[in-house]
Amino acid sequence: MSLSSAINTAQTSLSNYATQTSLLSRNISNASNPDYSRRNAALATSLAGAQVVSIQRAQDLVLFNKSISSTAMASGQSTLLDGITNLKDILGGNDYENAPATLIAAMRNTLATYAAKPGESTLAQTALADANTVALGLRDASAAVQNVRLDADQEISRQVHTLNELLSQFEASNNNVYRGTQTGKDVSADLDQRNSLLKKISEIVGVTSVTRNGNDMALYTADGTTLFETVARPVTFETSSGFSASLQGKSIYIDGVQLSSGAGATTTARGSLQALLQIRDEYAPEMQVHLDEIARALVVTFAEKDQSAVPTLADQPGLFTWSAGTVPAGGTLVPGIASTITINPALVLSLGGNPQLLRDGGINGAAYVANTTGATGFTSRLDSYVVALETPMAFDPAAGLSPSASLLKFSSDSVGWLELSRSEASSAAETRKATQFRSLESHSNATGVSLDEEMSMLLELEQSYKASARIISVVDEMLRALMASVG
Distance between CA 486 and CA 467 in Å, rounded? Predict the structure, then answer.
């Protein structure tokens, strides 16, 4: 090897070391960045020795796609669990102390005590106070359920806005990747940014990515709707100003195609949007139906009946009434009745009413009086209320529970339905979160930065650098000796 060849080889090596050291430094500085993929300098041998010909970026498409899928599933499940937990909190949390089942059971016990001592007016007022607590609990729960729906609707609006922004950023990043690939530019940073955006998008809506020629990428939802192809497709949604038992929320549209909601406690939702739809349009409305059926059943159970020998008058609201002031038909849902149920003002002492009418009847006139003699020991009416709370009656099958059950059993089954859904959603959330963690960990192990490896390579480069520097030093000494001999 000539001296000129030796010096050229050494200089090329030093240039390679500089490039490799720069890459290692960049890798080390991004060791804690989950969106960064390890870089490596690819060398090729030429007449001048090994030369850096390209910068390679570590990637594993299989693991990356798995991490994207698991992220979407975990996000959807976590969002659903949060929504169901919010519904549970309406009923008082772990002990369900504000649940209609708990409040009605307390009222039943007070009525039984009152029936044992029907002459005591304080017991009458206590029974009315418990009944008022039941009515207030139903009204508050109904309002809170609709607030949960409104919160979910507003969160959908925020996330749709975020999704459109992410898709716009994804379009710019994808264009950078495509143009850079066509011109032979190092697009590693752009690829990292594009993958980072894809992770964020998958938290909102499940996506399937397809990589095409020139590193161009297209995105589709889990059901095949185009989310991004060359340009970002619009995601549209119209918010609602408020909700009621009879008001439905608006749909989400991706490129003009309606986005479906998730299904089941172990939800099919991919991303938070589908889970939010599920809370707004399935779980919260289902709970509202339960509350409305409980309220309807209370009005029916405590209704006053015509006491004539040959009844001709219709049943009228007794202890409980509502905005329409009628007794609903049995077994037929009345949307929104829980939001207006109250105790009858004719029984409220502070409003000029008579609490003892609960025992005697006659809230709606003489034809409805059961205790015609005015006996203070009259108990049959109070006893009938206690029995009625535990006697099967008809419920609307639309409630999703037993169509024939006692009021106490129906209200308890409602709590059971919610707790079963929450428990299943919680278990699924733990499983999917673990799957997401393992997927991200596996992808990170395959493409992320290992400080041990990087430091080891840095030491190797240091030794190689010393060798190249030594070659230059030797060549320098030889040239000096040559120049001295001819001088």
Answer: 29
